[in-house]
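Good morning C.,

I know you're traveling, so I'll keep this short. The sequence:
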Amino acid sequence: MSTAIEHNPQNQEFTTRRQGHSAELAYARPAEGVIDFTHTFVDEQLRGQGLAEELARAGLTFAKNDNLKVKTSCSFMAGFVERHHAEYAELLA
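The tokens, ready to paste straight into the viewer:
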């Protein structure tokens, strides 16, 4: 089930809400042209529904569209990029 993902650049995060609960992918911009995905959180009631993957894809699409190099300080994001290496390898810093 696809969910609307919102990008909030002021708070440096991608978020979504479902059934009154939230999920987020936080990032930092440590250098010009670089985005570091630092933290993924999904409320317990929403886990197992693919929201973290949807957030990951939204964040990586943003990075690709803005020609940003990607770092993955977040362990979930590191694993996601590793599992989808062929799709995202060119984005890695």
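Safe travels,
E.
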